[in-house]
Amino acid sequence: MTDHSDVPSCDESSHQKRPPLTLPAMATVESAAMMLRAAGDTARLRILVLLASGERCVTELAAEEDEKVATVSARLKLLHSARLVTRRREAKHIYYALADHHVAHLLRDILDHAAEDTATDLEDQGENS
Questions:
Q1: What is the pLDDT of residues 7-51, one digit of tens each?
Q2: Overall average pLDDT of the 102-115 stretch
Q3: Which residues contact 86 (CB under 8 A, 6 or more apart)?
Q4: How far, in Å, are 36, 64, 98, 116, 117 from residue 106 at the CA level?
Q5: pLDDT (average), residues 62-87
């Protein structure tokens, strides 16, 4: 058992009164976690970023990433099962696109946030030199 004697504690009566919070349904939270896990791999995230510019065929994505079609297809299958991308068949080609504007916003926000962190890290390094 962990000793928490050095962890500051407070009395609940000192907490600010907040309105009751209604959490999303557990199924919604689990679905969101699955989406984040699917997008959490660098190679899959790169595919999502490529799809942010528009629909692409699996072979186009494989060429862009210099990967085998089977490898990219497996990544797309996982992204599709996580509901991050949609697919449609046209003759022998399967085209993928971002599922909707929510995915596009999520990508834009997380990449913008990551860029801010990188800029902050670089500024911190400059100050410490």
A1: 677 777 778 888 888 999 999 999 999 999 999 999 999 999 999
A2: 95
A3: 80, 96, 97, 98, 99
A4: 10, 22, 11, 15, 16
A5: 97
In the predicted model, what is the mean pLDDT of residues 89-95?
A: 93
Q: Which domains does the chain have, with CATH numbers?
A: 41-127 (1.10.10.10)
CB contact at 8 A, 76 and 62: no
Greatest C-alpha distance within the chain: 66
Length of the chain in residues, anyone? 129
Q: Which two tokens stand for residue 89?
A: 């068949």
Return the bridge partners of 96, or none.
56, 87
Note whether 51 and 85 are within 8 A (CB).
yes
Separation CA 60–CA 15 (nearest Å): 55
